[in-house]
Amino acid sequence: MSTTSEALLLEGVRKSFGKLEVLRGIDLAVAEHEVVCLIGASGSGKSTLLRCVNLLESIDEGRIVVEGEEITARGVDVNRIRRRIGIVFQSFNLFPHMSVLRNITLAPVKALGVSRAQAQHDAEELLERFGLLDKRDEYPDRLSGGQQQRVAIVRALATKPGLMLFDEVTSALDPELIAEVLNVIRELAAGGMTMVIATHEMGFARDIASRVCFLDAGVILEEGPPEEIFTAPRQPRTQQFLQRIVEAGRL
Amino acid sequence: MAVVSTIVFLAVLVLLVVNSPGWEDVKRQFFDWAEFREALPEILSAFGTNVRIFCIAEVFILVFALVLAVLRSLPGPVFFPLRALAIVYADLFRGIPTILVIYILGFGVPALQLSGVPTSELFWGTVGLVLVYSAYVSEVYRAGIESVHPSQEAAARSLGLSRTQSLRYVILPQAVRRVIPPLLNDFIGLQKDTALIALLGVVEAFRQSQIDVAATFNYTPYLATALLFVLITIPLARFTDWLVARDRRRSQAARLAG
Question: Is the pTM of this model over 0.90?
Answer without folding.
Answer: no
